[in-house]
Amino acid sequence: MTEFSPHIVVPLLVWGTLVGLDLVSVPQAMISRPLVAGTVAGWLAGDMEAGVRIGVLFELFALDVLPVGAVRYPDYGPATVVAAALAAGTPWELSLGVSAALGLVLAVLGGLSLQVVRRWNARAIQRKAAALSAGESSAIRRLQYGGLLRDAVRGFILTLLGLVLASTITESLLVDRRTAVALTLVAIGAALSAGASAAFRSSGRGDRLKWLVGGLVVGTLIAVLA
Amino acid sequence: MNGRLRAMLRLFAVQGTWNYERMLGVGMGYAAEPLLEDLKAVDPVRHGEAVVRSSEFFNCNPNLAGLALGATARAEYEAVPGAQIVRLRTALCSPLGALGDELFWAGLVPALVGFALVGVVLGVRWLAIVGFLVIYNAIRLWTSYWSLRTGMETGMRVGAAIGSSWLPRAIERVGPAAGFALGASIPAVAAWYLTGFGWAAVVGASGVAVSGIALTRWFGPTLTTVRFALLAMILLLLFGRIGL
């Protein structure tokens, strides 16, 4: 991370909070997708290249998530924001692995924090059960605004915690160049495995699998020619 | 701002109070409020009952929630018996969940993300990212508008309207597009990251990728891709420390 000054941290906190809210609560406009969250965070931290590299990496992990029903999954939004901030200002080949490690831990914490918010929402509803049974619209509104506020606080705390950890890592973690590059390669390999697993699992054995194979051929041509 | 527009805007926060008991229930009640306002003057007792029903348990894909919201609101105005409205809400949960998840989470999102990743690799970064956001949100906005309008127009006959709509056909088309986009993005992204590293590094990263695919498949939900990644990093640091 280039520096831990207020003019960088405050926009990152705001962005992390918005990204945290977008995942489930409002507006689900896909700004919480790591590709978007990471690129903007990198730009805010003064290093868009790092943001894009982190965003693409976490996007591969996020492809493995199918948010259907009551399934539990990591929250990659604020995690990507923090990882992009940590990676900013350092060549990505050296920073990607360490940033990814911090981001993945935060993503897991983010997933757990979602469960906490959902349980708090349930408790708030239980407390207002009588008002809901009486058909009080004001009780519904208060519950809704309370739920949104809880999720916003969740995103804010997650981003703040991540930035504090990122600052600590920047100041105290000593990783030699060889290990940093090795961590980056492991992170890339693991992310590719997540993306490929998601692609094959979602394709099944029907037409979609044929299209996936076609895509692999085209992607390989792009890889060779680009 | 009319009630229908306010309801549509509120639908964007339909998961704001997501919980394991009522799921989207309270969010649906919040979105239903503007639609049910006129009922208050006509039949206050019915309005109270309608508000209670609107915030009971409900779950589906949030982008298609307008179909259920519109249909039940119309049914309330048509004085359909409350038990029938509850049955309609319950019956709509699974199909709207399955159709919406298939269309958005398993189709449109991976398709657009896959194409955006290829765009990033090809160097059109902002265009790819902004394009992804604009296309996704345009489709989603239109779907939300269509859902609410169709629900309001068809009421208790919303099931037939869904069956004969564009939804099943769109799902058939978007699935292959998602497969193709994801397929194209994986090797393109791999090359984008690994070009510039030596052959040994490329072989090492590929080994991690293949191990990850195999191990997360064999050890199923216990070893998720995130756990595999963290485990691999910890092992790397441990082996480095003991000099391997």
Per-chain topology:
The complex is a heterodimer of chains A (226) and B (244).
Chain A: H1 6-24, H2 34-44, H3 48-62, H4 76-87, H5 92-127, H6 129-133, H7 137-172, H8 177-203, H9 207-225
Helix pairs in contact in A: 1-2, 1-4, 1-7, 2-3, 2-4, 3-4, 3-5, 3-8, 4-5, 4-7, 5-7, 5-8, 8-9
Chain B: H1 3-11, H2 25-42, H3 44-54, H4 65-77, H5 82-121, H6 125-154, H7 158-163, H8 167-194, H9 199-218, H10 225-241
What does this structure look like?
The complex is a heterodimer of chains A (226) and B (244). With 226 residues, chain A is mainly α. Chain A has one domain. Helices cover 80% and strands 0% of the residues of chain A. Chain A contains nine helices and no strands. The mean pLDDT of chain A is 94. In chain B, helix 2 runs parallel beside helix 4. Chain B folds into two domains: 193 residues, no CATH class; 49 residues. Helices cover 79% and strands 0% of the residues of chain B. By secondary structure, chain B is mainly α. At the A-B interface, helix 2, helix 3, helix 5, helix 7 and helix 8 of A face helix 2, helix 3, helix 5, helix 6 and helix 8 of B.
Low-confidence stretches of chain B: none
List the domain count of chain B as a whole number. 2
Structural class of chain B: mainly alpha
Quaternary? heterodimer
The main sheet of chain B comes to: none
What's a quick, concise take on this entry?
The complex is a heterodimer of chains A (226) and B (244). By secondary structure, chain A is mainly α.
Task: Provide tags for this entry.
heterodimer; A: 226 residues; mainly alpha; 9 helices; globular; B: 244 residues; 2 domains; 10 helices; elongated
